[in-house]
Every structure is written in C-alpha cells, then in structure tokens.
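Students often ask why we bother encoding 3D structure as a string. The short answer is that it lets us treat folding as translation between two languages. Here is a chain of 447 residues written in the first language.
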Amino acid sequence: MNLSWKNIPFAPKRCPFFYGWVIVAAATVTTVASVPGQTMGVGVFTDDLIVALGISRVQLSTAYMIGTICSSLMLPLAGRLIDSLGVRVMVVIAASGLGLSLVSLSNIERIIALSGSRSFFAIMSVTTVCFMLIRFFGQGSLTMVSRVAIGKWFNHRRGLATGISAIFVTFGFNASPQFLNSLNAAYGWREACLVLALTVGLGVSIPAWILFRDNPESCGLVMDGIDDPAWLARMSAKVADTKREFTRSEAIRTPAFWLVSGGLATQALIITAVTFHIVSLGAGAALDRSQVYNLFIPMSFFGIVGSLFGGWISDLIKLKWLLISQLVFQAIGTFGLLDLGNPLGQWAYIVGYGVSGGFFATLITVAWPRFFGREHLGAITGLSMSILVFASAVGPVLFSLSQLFFGTYLCMILICGFMPLLLSLASIKADNPQEKLSCDNHGIFES
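And here it is in the second language, the structure alphabet:
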C-alpha cells in the first residue's frame, strides 16, 4: 500500500497529536472485543452448551482443547499475514471472522442437524470446529494484531502505551464474565452469542478499518512521535536500541524467546483452565455462580494496578524482572484456589491473578519488538501466540481429568502453582538479545 492509501479516509499526519495514541485506543477496543473468543467469554456458556449438546464436561473440554490446538497451529500463518497484508487489513479479517464464528456457535444445534446425524461423532466434530474458529479469530488473531499494532507505533514509549491500553483491557476482561453472565441470563445463550456477533462483526470491524494504520513511517511519521536527537539519546540509555531485525528462525535460537513464551504460556494454561471451570471450582468452595463472578470485579482493580506499574517500569528495567514478578504472582493466585471459600484464599486469587494479568498484558506487547525488532514482528508474535494458545487448549481438559479421576481439582492446582515458580528461576537467563549482539553484521554473535 502506498502513502496515499494510508490517507483514506483521512491523513494521520494531520492529527493535532501523535496518531500512535489513536492506534492505542483502537487496539484497546479490538483487544477487548476479542473477549467472546477468550475462555472467559466461552466459559460463561460452558454449562449451557453441556445441556444443549447432551455431552459431559470432559467431552466439551476435549472439543475445546482440540479446537484450540487446531487454531494454535494456524496462528503462525496469521502472523506472517500481518507482516505481508498489514495490521489494518488483518484486524478487519479477524473481527469479521470472530463475528461469523459466533453466529455459527449460536446455531450449533442446527448445523449438527444439517449433517444428517446427531451421533456423538457429529456433535463433537461440529463443536470442535466452532471452538477452533472462535479461538483462532478471537484469542489468536484479533488480540495478536492489536498488540502488534501498538508495537509498531511505539519504541521508547512502548511500555507506557501498553500500560495505558492494558488498564482498559484488564478491566474489560475482568468485568466481562459478569456482563456476559447477565446477558446470558437476560436473553439466553444463543441470543447472547448473536448480540456479540453483531457487535464484533460490524460494530468493531468498520471503525477498525477507518482508524488503524500499519506503521508510522508509511504515514510520514516517526515512532513515539518524537524526532528530537537529545531525547532519543536519553531514552536509548535506558532501553537498548534495535541493532538487528531478527527473523523468526533467529529469534527461536535465543533463550529469551522460549522463557518469555513459557511464562506467557503458563499464565494462559492456568487462567484458561480456571476460567473455563470457575463455576465448578466455586461450587467446590460453597460459592454460587454469582459469588464466583463477583470475584472478577476486584481482580480488575489489581489488574489495572499491574498494568500501570508494569507498563511504566518496563521502559526502565530489564524485562526479565517483570517476567519473574509475573510468574510469582501467577503462583500466588493459583495457590489461592486451595482455599477459595475463605477470604484469605479469595484475596490471594484476586491479587495474584489480577497483578499477573496486568504484567502479562505488558510483556506480550513489549517483549517481542524490544527483543527482536519490528520487521518480522508478526511472524515472531504468531509463533509465540501459537505456543500460548496451545497451552490454553490443554488447561481445561487437564482440570477436567483431575476432577474426573480424583474427584477434585487439587492435583492440577498444585502442579499449576509450582510450575511458574520453577520457571521464574530459569527466567534469570531471559536477557534482551539486542544487548548481547556484537558489531558483526554477518550473523548473530553474543558479545
């Protein structure tokens, strides 16, 4: 796309302030719009789907797992498409795709009937495909392209921009289960899915096309909106400049890629599993459905605190310290599940998952452009998202199997509590690859 195309329907360069902040606002809305494709969105309809489809919790979790794994395998392709087509085109494709996927979910019983059989195989196949599409366009593509957009428009202020966005994303994510539960109670799960489909498919994709732009350079602007050499020199002293644009194959040869991806993946696995089974977990602690969803409201406050602090501090410190902190709070939240019926366990759950979620939002946006540059950002982010989504796929079914075979979630809670603590010890090696590059231009060498 040439420069003139970027000026339709208006020229970002004429904006009275740096247009990157418009990108932040737009990316925040599109990220929140991905909620119906996130587990916190799907989890609200879990029990309704079990009744409507006539299958067990383990079977539904298995369909969810397979569908999510299939979606994770497609995300590297989506990442490469972001690099080739640009974020503006991809955000419209992702939002429209999520809307159509929600229409399919609302009509899942009709689709099964069209297959000519209501066999177990037909039910599981259609359910798996519906979950695959929702997860691919929602949790995968829409969130990924939104985060890549912010990463392309900011450099030294990337943490600040991410922190501001994460305030609203964290609140939106944590408040959404209660909102969706109310929507479900008022209209029924099928009608609620159609309302969400219309909202995302049209109400988000059209404004996204109007507002999104691929990068500042194509609009005649510079990253951060500041071209002052003195300011750039001061900021470069705090955060390493991009010395090399890493390809995806080069990025995966660094410890930083796998350690950060591992930290993000454990969060995805645990949060997905807990959110998917939150009503059942609450019942085991003598909490009803309303009481369980009420816990998400104070969690959003701590998520906002984590987002603000994480975004601010990420521009000043090595990201590995933020990663380690995220993993520790992740463990605190998980251990809170052991005593969810009492205030101490509830506050550990609220604070731990709230703060770790805020740090997660910062890391997933800031780490990859800072570590590996922007040229291949879509491909690198796509692979990381594939790992993250794959981890989120196995979480619900592992918790289901724990409950099935042992009659309790205790086994998986303990495993998921100690897992991030062990990974936090290894994350001391998650140094920025840009800081370890030599001046040799013929390959990657650590100094």
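Translate back mentally: DSSP finds 21 helices and no strands in the chain. Keep this in mind for the problem set.
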